[in-house]
Write a structure and sequence with these properties.
It is a single chain. The chain is an alpha+beta fold and 197 residues long. It has 4 helices and 11 strands, in the order H-E-E-H-H-E-E-E-E-E-E-E-E-E-H. The protein is 31% helix and 28% strand. The N and C termini lie far apart (44 Å).
Length: 197
């Protein structure tokens, strides 16, 4: 009886926060084999616009990138593999959560603040524990016209990408993941079936 009451209470509290309890996840099961997905990178990418800045945030978690097409998977997996050792060292976490973040502008000489990127996941506001530059000029914190600056953001805390996720930059936020997640979950199931075939 006590366990039943605890489970019911947990479901109500979690439901009030709009976070699905683990037993009712839509997509449970093993990951599909690499290269069996069909999604493009932009289909798993959260986008924000802040003034002249355009920002793209893409998860590098296997549970997400295995839903992408083979060439996209190779690129994103390679990026994750390249930066994971440094992310582990810098965050002190054995399994940090990684995102690749890009800043772009059509305008000349636009500044950006890397530390302004934050996540809101499972009711927690998270700042990155390490920012690992991909482009060599990242440290300038400025964009030339039509230039892209890219880095990998590492979070020591685990981020559940099968739940709601909000990306924040300054006063701008995007809840686009709510639209992306069902596509990822559906493609994961299809890719798993293709892998078995």
């Amino acid at each position: 009886m006590r366990h039943a009451l605890l489970a019911a209470t947990t479901a109500v509290v979690v439901g009030g926060c709009a976070i699905a309890p683990a037993p009712t996840r839509v997509d449970a099961g093993p990951l599909p084999p690499p290269g069996s997905g069909t999604l493009r990178q932009n289909e798993i990418t959260i986008e924000l616009t802040s003034g002249a800045l355009r920002i793209k945030v893409t998860p590098l978690e296997e549970s997400v990138i295995r839903t992408t097409a083979p060439d996209t998977y190779r690129m994103l997996s390679g990026l994750a593999g390249r930066f994971t050792p440094d992310a582990i060292r810098r965050t002190g976490s054995p399994s940090p959560t990684l995102f690749v973040v890009s800043f772009y502008s059509d305008d000349p000489d636009v500044s950006f603040v890397p530390e302004e990127i934050q996540l809101i996941a499972e009711g927690r506001r998270l700042r990155s524990d390490a920012i690992l530059p991909v482009t060599t000029t990242w440290g300038k914190r400025r964009l030339a016209q039509r230039e892209t600056e890219t880095a990998v953001y590492a979070f020591a805390s685990s981020v559940d990408l099968d739940s709601d996720l909000t990306v924040v930059y300054g006063l701008v936020e995007s809840r686009q993941w709510q639209t992306i997640l069902p596509k990822v979950q559906a493609e994961r199931a299809k890719a798993r079936a293709r892998g078995k075939g």
